[in-house]
Amino acid sequence: MRAIEITAPGGPEVLEWHEVPDPSVGPGDVLIDVAASAVNRADVHQRRGFYDPPPGAPLYPGLEVSGVVAAVGADVEQFKAGDEVCALLAGGGYAERVAVPWQQVMPVPEGLPLAEAAALPEVACTVWSNVFMIGRLRRGETLLVHGGASGIGTFAVQLAKALGSRVAATVGSEAKAEQVRKLGADEVVNYREEDFADRVEADVILDIMGAKYLAGNVRALRTGGRLVIIGLQGGGKAELDLGALLTKRATVHGTTLRSRPVDEKGVIVRSVVDNVWPLVEAGAVRPVVYAKVPMSQAADAHRMLDSGEHVGKILLVR
Ligand SMILES: NC(=O)c1ccc[n+]([C@@H]2O[C@H](COP(=O)([O-])OP(=O)(O)OC[C@H]3O[C@@H](n4cnc5c(N)ncnc54)[C@H](OP(=O)(O)O)[C@@H]3O)[C@@H](O)[C@H]2O)c1
Fold first, then answer.
1. CATH number, domain at 96?
2. Domain named Enoyl reductase (ER): which ranges (predicted)?
């Protein structure tokens, strides 16, 4: 098969489409003929040499795919050849084929084109597990989403609105603010012009900035608030005002999805299929696809992500 190899740590030009060995299929694996993958910020960190795949994961980038099941391992009863599926991966999505533990495989939501389903696994599992399973966001509460125009943000805004919450989001331009409002956000703050903590009070915050926003996030939390940190774009070390945390009876969580064991991912994946897929099928939540780029031209897709011009997801199609 062919896959995108990272030939050396560096810029988008290090991504090359090469002939590589086919994946081996373990007894609990599903082999997928890939229709599409999608670009995540983590792929850029991996390309630059800062985010190696966890042990045992394929070396090629790509945290999600959609496609058709080509074969299943001896122990797999849940899927069969010919099924249309999408999957959450620990790596290896930028390829013609990928083998993935069955626990991380999902049916394609009914009515969704196969390629577009590649835009969902990473954002759906990240947002559902962090905002709802860990953050326990409830109907009527307020969610603050940092980076509302990102792949993660566009999904979080829609899902929280669909489940009856008030949503505030931060973005870096007026044009992006407009698009995030169209996705349903009630309040949008341009982080280049205003301090979000002066304007927003939130019960749950989904944070991608880490150190840079820690003090502001604690300030913006309501009593009983939950701050869930999933990204460190603004650094990994900061001072935490424990007094404020105590007074507000607030909690701070941090998680990564990629390094979780297969069984934990399986619990999240099943919960997503049960709780999120019906909303996608009803049209209440949809993947926001900014561009479709041929997979062999993944370098162009990374240039697009690096430029920061995108809103939502960039797909890599076969
Ligand atoms: N822990 C996990 O399991 C997990 C899983 C998935 C993703 N993530 C993290 O989630 C983040 C989003 O991922 P993605 O793939 O959706 O990336 P993406 O589409 O490239 O989005 C990056 C976002 O960061 C925003 N941003 C940059 N500076 C900001 C600031 N000062 N304040 C607020 N927002 C700012 C950008 O907003 P503008 O474009 O509006 O400037 C952009 O929307 C990344 O940090 C990624 O590592 C974590």
1. 3.90.180.10
2. 10-316
